[in-house]
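Input.
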Amino acid sequence: MTIRIFNPEHDIALASNMERFTAPHAGRLLRSDLCYLPALWSNEGDVVIVDDIDFAESAYRRLKAERKPAVEFCTMEQIAHVLSSCIPSAIDPWGWDLAIRFQLLSVGVPEDLLPSKDAVQEIRLLSNRKCTTNILENVRKGLESKTCGESIYITDYHSFSERLQSNANIVVKAPWSSSGRGVRYFQNGELTENALNWVNNVIRLQGGVMIEPLYNNVKDFGMEFRRDANGRVYYLGLSLFQTQNGAYTGNLLATEAVKRDIMSKYVSLELLDEITARLEKELSNMFSVLPKESAISDIRFGVDMMIVAKDDADGFLLHPCVEINLRRTMGHVALSLSPLDDIKEGNMAITYDSKRYHLKLKYNYM
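Output.
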């Protein structure tokens, strides 16, 4: 039996680096409304921690998913009772941070089932966006004519100002943030007072910012991975997703073959496979610094990418590492909901109706 929990505020918790962390209202609402999500990748008999059992059971029952394992929903306060009758084989959150570790410890989860504070700090350091710089450089070597992507980490406002003057169109990102909230776009060298204050505050609070060129992005996608108990990283599948103003809105639900066919219209499948193999190698090396602890021996994570139109409008380039999300992603949710038949396709969307977040699923036969 595995205990699972959806903590989508994870990235913000990493930025705060505090045990007693209170997520913003939107984060708390998303966690409460979609608390049942881990049931989708659970095994029969797993336990999923939710805020409201009746709500979770009702939402899960209404979900039109092809695979819905029978799980037990319980609240955080009921975990001690669950542990009195059965010791879980693992604890599986959306992502590990000090806050979720402290929450679980506070309700009676034995410390030996949780990662050490040192392990969580290593995860936090690897989650810093600046870790993408070396990965990006290594993955692109020898493939520069078919790929694009560069990034620089700066720790002072003067360096930021220089980059803005030399490249008028840039993207600036906080080292830790989620769903577009820590990203600002600068075009034509323009800098408002609000944007200036944001850059200075991020540098002060998080130590620096990432600066990247602003590309002509024509398609967002990602690759989902798993790091197993032996430390090996391997590929799980493609994630073709949509965003609005930098925030995630939904995913295509389709077989890997269908998704690969879509991507082949932009780049060769040989290039896609080569990028996959290189990422498996580079990420295995990157994660080798993690302590050998059973609580973090099995990790799911994703790498965001994009298809970029060439400046001369003659074809496309692949950006192979926009960022690394060292946690589960909505792409993993999509993989758990994807059809098994190539003639069936669907969409998964996260919507908000002014009161609640909803997971919407729609399938069609092609």
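Residues 257 and 317 are 21 Å apart (CA to CA).
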